Each structure stands twice: as C-alpha cells, then as structure tokens.
Amino acid sequence: MPETRLPGGFVNAVVRAGDTVRRRPGPRAAFVHELLALFERRGWPGAPRFRGFDERGREILGFVPGHVAWEEHQPDGVTSDRSLARVAELVREFHDLTAGTPLAGAEEVVCHNDLSPKNTVYRDEHGAGLRPVAIIDWDLAAPGRRIHDVAHVCWQYAGLGPGAADAPRRVRLICDAYGLADRRGVVAAVLWWQDRCRRGIEAEAAAGAPHAVRLRAAGVVEQVRAAHDWVAAHRADLERALR
Ligand SMILES: Nc1ncnc2c1ncn2[C@@H]1O[C@H](COP(=O)(O)OP(=O)(O)O)[C@@H](O)[C@H]1O
Ligand SMILES: [Mg+2]
C-alpha cells in the first residue's frame, strides 16, 4: 500500500496508508493503546482507533479525516468561540470516561498532556464552519488532574501570549464549557506548563534530541518564554475573569 507523509508532526515521522496512520510507538505506548481501546469500547469518537502493529513495528491507528490545525494561520472556524467551547467539551468527555478507571490510577482522570490545535482534527459537519471532532497524538497521556489539561487548552487554543485576543473572556469560556468548578489554579497551571515546556525543550536540545534541536532553532524557546512572561504580566486580569 502506498504511504504518504503527513504534515504537522513535531516529533514523529507519521505516514498515511489507506485509511490508517503508521507511527513509531511512543515510550508509553502500551498505556496509550489501552486508553484508545477504552475509548473504542465506550464508543467515544473523539480519538483514533488503535488497530495493532504493522510488520515494521509501527503502531496502526485509524485515519481521522478532516483538517488538522497545525499551521500558524487558521480559518475562522478553528479559532471561533464555538470551536473553543467544543474542544473543552471533548476534553470533559474523555476526562469523565477515564475518571475512576484503572488507567487513571489514584489520579482524577487520564490527561492528554499535549492538547493543542496541531493535535486536533476539525471538520465542517453542519455547514457552520470547522469544529473539533477528534484529538490525536496521545503519546504523553498519563494519569493527572483535570485542571492540567484545562490549563493547557487555555494556553494553546486561546493562544495565551503576546497578541492574544480577548484572552480573559476566552479563558473563561473554556472553563465554563468544560464545567470546571474550581478555577483558582488555572493561571498558575498555565505558567507551570509554559515553564516546563521551555525547560524541556532546552534540556532535550542540549542532549541532542533532534526534534528539540529543531524547535530551539525555530525560536520556540524564546516564544514560550515570551508567552510565559505575558501570562505572568496579565495574571490579575485572567484570574479576575475566572472568579
Ligand atoms: N489518526 C490520525 N488521523 C489523521 N491524521 C493524523 C492522525 N495521526 C496523525 N495525523 C497527522 O499526522 C501529523 C503528525 O501526527 P502526530 O501524532 O501529531 O505526531 P507528532 O507526535 O510528531 O506530533 C498530525 O499533525 C496529523 O496531520
Ligand atoms: Mg502532534
């Protein structure tokens, strides 16, 4: 079967073969595959199906048709309030599906830990514009707290950083759509993620990891630092909107 390289990957070389995707399994692949199997058993359509391994040891995932928002500039539908709210609802759905399962262990839920438009498939199913329908790239999924994923959604989908438009209102919209009861730690969790992300790229690049070296060369370390400083400077406004 012919294979075509899929654009928008930041770590792995991902290819499409027919209605499947092939990618190198991540370090916690067994956990991820159990998670995807749980979603399939529960009939949740918001993640790709896991279909085993191919002859080259790559994981086989169902291809999710649609638009993956990996480029910097995106159509209005992707950045709309409706899409923002729907992403938050999707996150709520898989959090609730994993709460209380052995996969969540002693934690609240299973977190995705890399929620962003570049890991989201959008489709225009009702003629009203692109809306998120599925989340891909579950390599970093692990037991965690709801607020950690919600904060990552705030950072990545509301574009928290220099130039963010309407940030306090959009952060509130995300927390409302998710139904997050206690929002007091959201902004602190955004800052934690940004700090961790920058340090992670720096450390991995220093150790020679190719994807981290590429990100550093593309100026991502400075971008994430600027985003962190922006959130720190606007912390009071953001927290007021979440009260
Ligand atoms: N199941 C899937 N269905 C459709 N496209 C996919 C799927 N998995 C990956 N892709 C495409 O491949 C790209 C890279 O995949 P991803 O899993 O995000 O890899 P990486 O870990 O390198 O970021 C995505 O941006 C998307 O365009
Ligand atoms: Mg990805």
Describe this structure in words.
This protein has 243 residues and is an alpha+beta fold. 45% of the residues lie in helices and 14% in strands. The protein has helices at 29-41, 76-79, 81-98, 146-157, 167-178, 186-206, 210-217, 220-233, 235-241, and strands at residues 4-5, 15-17, 20-23, 50-53, 59-62, 67-68, 109-111, 120-123, 131-135, 142-144. The mean pLDDT is 97. It has two domains: 4-62; 67-241, Aminoglycoside 3'-phosphotransferase, Chain: A, domain 2. Strands 1-2-3-5-4 form a five-stranded antiparallel beta sheet. The chain has a three-stranded antiparallel beta sheet with strand order 6-8-9. It has a two-stranded antiparallel ribbon with strand order 7-10. It contains nine helices and ten strands. The chain binds adenosine-5'-diphosphate and magnesium ion. Residues 9-10, 118-119, 137 line the site of magnesium ion. It comes from Nonomuraea zeae. This is Trifolitoxin immunity protein. Residues 106-167 form the Aminoglycoside phosphotransferase domain.
